[in-house]
Write a structure and sequence with these properties.
Blueprint lengths: L1 H5 L21 H19 L7 E11 L4 E10 L2 E6 L6 E5 L3 E6 L10 E5 L4 E5 L4 H14 L5 H11 L6 E3 H4 L21 E3 L3 H4 L10 H20 L9 H8 L4 H12 L1 H7 L3 H9 L5 H9 L13 H17 L9 H11 L2 H15 L9 H17 L1 H10 L2 H10 L8 H14 L2 H13 L1 H5 L4 H13 L1 E2 L11 H5 L9 E2 H12 L4 H31 L7 H18 L8 H4 L6 H4 L1 E2 L1 H11 L8 H12 L7 E2 H13 L2 H11 L8 H17 L5 H12 L12 E2 H14 L6 H31 L27 H19 L7 H5 L6 H7 L9 H4 L4 H10 L5 E2 L1 H8 L3 H8 L4 H29 L1
Parallel strand pairs: 10-11
Antiparallel strand pairs: 1-2, 1-7, 2-3, 3-4, 5-6, 6-7, 8-9, 12-13, 14-15
Organism: Hucho hucho
Membrane topology: Single-pass membrane protein
Protein name: TBC1 domain family member 9B
Length: 941
């Protein structure tokens, strides 16, 4: 589903397990989908990276030394981790990275401890699993994975540094921690926004800029010391680092608040960012170097928002904090160009930098954007919209009376987006919101839903009395502004919203610990797996809503430029989008990223190439020419592709169809005329006329104030409409191709015979007009004063009569060429299925006799001469084409108007609804037939 939303090309998941033998009663698709679902649940449960694949799981027991008992649960084994989860929720959870494992061995079995396996780690921890059904196979699989695990001492040294707590200098030059890029000559290259002399923090900015000593805070400092001591006792009992036992006591300590000195370490541990950082040493420095000096849309947006990130905090009131925030954001934009940068990322990252180093903040941001808050930070904030829908469903289930009233006011959709995007950091005082971030990293998005529901429940009575949205927003805003943390050591930082709000009486303060406790007591029954199911259902609605919004925007933008109705435009958009999506997976000559640019307006985002356009033209176009249809579609594609990139967008596609279906006769003929002209620039006449207009404006306006330049800018940007006088002249070869196209277009019309006779008459007339025009052009070359008459249509009295022409003259040669071209078109037309009686009827095959015995004067060309292969005709045509012969569009239009059948044909409006219905029916039949073939293949195997 995300591939359809993000328009990424399809990539087969080669990591899915392959069946060792064919299973008759099990679908391969179902097996792969089940395996993918198990992998996603496994990664979400233990906060593992996206490339981690579950190899298998089995029931077992784990000996817990802190409780002196065996805990029943399941053991999970993947390519890089061994994980355990108790059957009872929150009783015990364990994550053992294989890079930390030193010994895996089978222990002695007994009646108390059957089939045990002992796993020892490098930091001297031992884990004992028992009651394993297939112990030998399990040990062998773990041994195989251990052999593939690369040796790395990065995590051990870092853990030892964490535990020792050795002091380190607060700052270090950036050049010492990041590689210095060099230019082509070996000298340091010029970098934008970066300087090697800028310091970077190797610890949290809060510790560097902590002005007040902890002992000056008295009871608050004592409370903080007590928290640190409780965590140290917990580490001694349950372990420290990635292999720590995570129990209900761990959750209790998190809910009571993580000490500031341990906050960064535990955030990395609970989010899974520690594992990713340990397995990718030096990755952050490489991304910073790669991002140095780049100027993209993401970097410009980052620069714009840097000084808006917690401006009230002194850590971001100097260049050191700003530079650190810039490096982390640009490094992530370099890592994930699909996201780049999104608003609210700067707020979250600035909080991470207060407690973590730059590299740690980077990996925490990776965990947030790619795992814990999926699809939140992109151009359309899809993930936040999905959780907004989940929150509405939870409100309806838990607070039904308030939900109905809030829906009438439209408040839930307004407030929840900012709450979820910034994890309450933008709506609550910093010292209080950071406690919610503690809980979020441990329990996930569930705690954010619980707190949001508790906020609505606490203000239920006042919200039910509100009469409009503004009043409800004010009540909730003032409530959140007064959620305080009375245990913090840092000086209070007032929230910006609290400084701007005023009231007669200040509202009572709400203790953030009481708010968290209340949310757990009243809404603690929320489960993470239930929330994931609700996310799945809401994601379908959000995607459909976004597509409907895009479709409405496109239709509104094209209503004034197109003659199609709203319903027709919507249906055309569906067909165009379907063709674009299919091209992302099958038979595309370009990548999906090249055909989709989210930064463009909706009507220009989706694009198709020539192959897809030819298919749509054959299904929806009204000018079908049999085997000549592909050629005509290619010419129309070339004309519509304004920027010559080999792709056309929906606006260009509708422009072409609108001219065919709803244009008048002049517009349709003009389009056909342009299709048979080679690509080229504007003629000299139009260019000269534009220069004359500019000179007139400059001469009239002598005083050039700013209004003059605004008018000139508006004139330059105003699209110049091409008139029929601006069209270039058509030579003889192009005219022959035009006649051939018209012949093929009329082949399936009910008035086929009348149209053939009419186009033959018009072709003969235009040939004679071209001959007369050539004489004036030649005379104009000798007499420059007569050039004004070179392009004028010849008077009817001056047209040469056919009977006065020599049989071997140039006019006869041109008529012979047209005759041969029409005969070739007849040969290219696929024969229709006819009965024996229809073949015997002379009128059923008399179309060519009308052309050859009409006004083209082709009696001297035998039928067998025309009906041979076209190779010799092509050579003869090149030798007898008249290079001086040409006609104008005005002459073509005037000649067409003399034949009523042609006028009626081109004035007739097409019915695109019938063609779209037929196209949709063919697609449904094709899907049904494909499903039937698949079922037959399954039954045969």
């Amino acid at each position: 589903m995300r591939q359809l939303l993000d328009n990424e090309g399809f990539a087969a998941d080669h990591s899915l397990p392959k069946a060792c033998k064919t299973l008759k009663n099990v679908s391969a698709l179902k097996r792969d989908l089940d395996a993918r679902a198990k992998n996603e649940r496994y990664r979400a449960l233990f906060r593992l990276t996206q490339d981690e694949r579950l190899d298998g799981h089995t029931d077992c027991t784990l000996w817990t030394p802190f409780a002196k008992m065996h805990i029943v649960g399941q053991l999970f084994v993947s390519n890089n981790y061994i994980c355990f989860c108790s059957r009872e929720e929150d009783l015990c959870q364990l994550i053992i990275p294989l890079r930390e494992v030193s010994i895996v061995e089978k222990a002695d079995s007994s009646s108390v401890l059957p089939c045990p396996v002992s796993i020892s780690t490098k930091n001297k921890m031992t884990f004992l699993f028992a009651n394993l059904k297939d112990r030998d196979f399990l040990v062998q699989r773990i041994s195989d994975f251990l052999q593939r695990t690369p040796e790395s001492g990065h995590s051990v040294s870092q853990s030892e540094g964490r535990c020792a707590g050795s002091p380190s200098p607060s700052t270090t030059p950036l050049s010492s921690s990041l590689p210095t890029p060099t230019g082509a000559a070996g000298e340091p290259s010029q970098r934008r926004h970066y300087s090697p002399s800028l310091p970077t923090a190797n610890q949290g900015l809060l510790r560097i800029y902590q002005k007040d000593a902890p002992e000056e805070h008295g009871p608050k400092a004592t409370k903080e010391k007590m928290k640190e001591e409780l965590w140290n006792i917990h580490f001694l009992e349950f372990g420290r680092g990635v292999c720590m036992y995570r129990t209900s006591k761990t959750r209790e300590l998190v809910l009571n608040g993580i000490p500031e000195s341990l906050r960064g370490e535990l955030w990395l541990l609970f989010s899974g960012a520690q594992n990713e950082m340990d397995t990718h040493p030096g990755y952050y420095a490489e991304r910073v170097e790669q991002a140095m000096g780049r100027c993209t849309l993401a970097t410009e947006e980052i620069e714009r928002d840097l000084h808006r990130s917690m401006p009230e905090h002194h850590a971001f009131q100097n260049e050191m904090g700003i530079a650190a925030l810039r490096r982390v954001l640009t490094a992530y934009a370099c890592r994930n160009p699909g996201i780049g940068y999104c608003q609210a990322m700067n707020i979250v990252t600035s909080v991470l930098l207060l407690y973590c180093t730059e590299e740690e903040a980077f990996w925490l941001l990776v965990a947030l954007c790619e795992r814990m808050l999926p699809d939140y930070y992109n151009t359309r904030v899809v993930g936040a919209l999905v959780d907004q829908g989940v929150f509405e469903e939870l409100t309806r289930a838990c607070l039904p009376f308030l939900y109905e009233h809030m829906q009438e006011l439209g408040v839930i959709s307004t407030i929840s987006l900012s709450w979820f995007l910034t994890l309450f950091l933008s709506v609550m005082p910093f010292d209080s919101a950071v406690l919610l971030v503690d809980c979020f990293f441990y329990e996930g998005i569930k705690v954010i839903f619980q707190v949001a529901l508790a906020v609505l429940h606490a203000n239920m009575d006042t919200l039910l009395d509100c009469n409009d949205e503004g009043e409800a927003m004010t009540i909730l805003g003032r409530y959140l502004d007064n959620v305080v943390n009375k245990q913090t050591m840092s000086p209070p930082i007032p929230h910006l919203h609290a400084l701007l709000t005023s009231g007669d009486e200040p509202p009572p303060q709400i203790d953030v610990f009481q708010l968290i406790k209340s949310s757990c007591d009243k809404f603690g029954s929320l489960r993470a797996d239930v929330i994931e199911q609700m996310r799945f259902h809401q994601r379908l609605k959000v995607i459909q809503s976004l597509e409907d919004t895009a479709k409405r925007s496109v239709v509104r933008a094209l209503m004034t430029d197109s003659a199609f109705s709203i319903e027709e435009l919507e249906e055309l958009y569906v067909h165009f989008k379907a063709k674009h999506i299919m091209s992302c997976y099958w038979g595309a000559s370009t990548t999906a990223a090249e055909r989709h640019d989210p930064s463009l307006p909706y009507l220009e985002q989706y694009r198709i190439d020539l192959g897809q356009f030819c298919q749509l033209f054959g299904a929806l176009g009204t000018w079908l020419c049999g085997p000549h249809t592909a050629t005509l579609a290619a010419r129309l594609f070339r004309l519509l592709d304004m920027n010559k990139d080999g792709l056309i967008n929906f606006k260009e596609f509708v422009t072409g169809l609108s001219g065919m279906y709803h244009g008048d006769m002049t517009e349709k003929l003009k389009l056909l005329y342009n299709l048979h002209l080679p690509p080229g620039k504007q003629g000299k006449t139009q260019l000269c006329r534009h220069c004359i207009q500019c000179n007139i404006v400059i001469s009239v306006s002598e005083v050039k104030d700013y209004k003059y330049y605004l008018r000139m800018w508006a004139m330059e940007n105003e699209p110049k409409k091409e008139t029929i006088k601006d069209l270039r002249r058509m030579n003889q070869e192009q005219f022959i191709e035009l006649c051939k196209t018209l012949y093929n277009m009329f082949s399936e019309d009910p008035l086929e015979q009348e149209l053939y006779h009419a186009i033959a008459t018009v072709a003969s007339l235009l040939l004679r007009i071209g001959e007369v025009g050539k004489k004036f052009t030649n005379n104009g070359a000798k007499k420059p004063t007569d050039t004004t008459n070179a392009q004028a249509p010849a008077p009817a009295a001056e047209l040469p009569q056919p009977e006065k022409e020599e049989p071997n003259g140039e006019s006869s040669s041109g008529q012979s060429l047209v005759c041969r071209a029409l005969a070739e078109a007849q040969l290219e037309t696929p024969p229709q299925q006819t009965s024996d009686e229809e073949v015997k009827d002379d009128t059923s095959v008399s179309s060519y006799s009308i052309v050859s015995t009409g006004s083209l004067q082709c009696e001297d060309i035998a039928d067998d001469t025309v009906l041979i292969g076209c190779a010799g005709d092509q050579q003869r045509r090149g030798s007898i084409l008249d290079g001086d012969w040409s006609i104008t569009f005005e002459q073509v239009l005037a000649s067409m108007l003399t034949e009523p059948p042609l006028v009626d044909y081109f004035e007739k409006k097409g019915d695109i609804q019938a063609r779209m219905a037929s196209c949709k029916m063919q697609r449904v039949e094709r899907q049904v037939s494909s499903s039937s073939d698949h079922e037959l293949a399954q039954l045969s195997t």
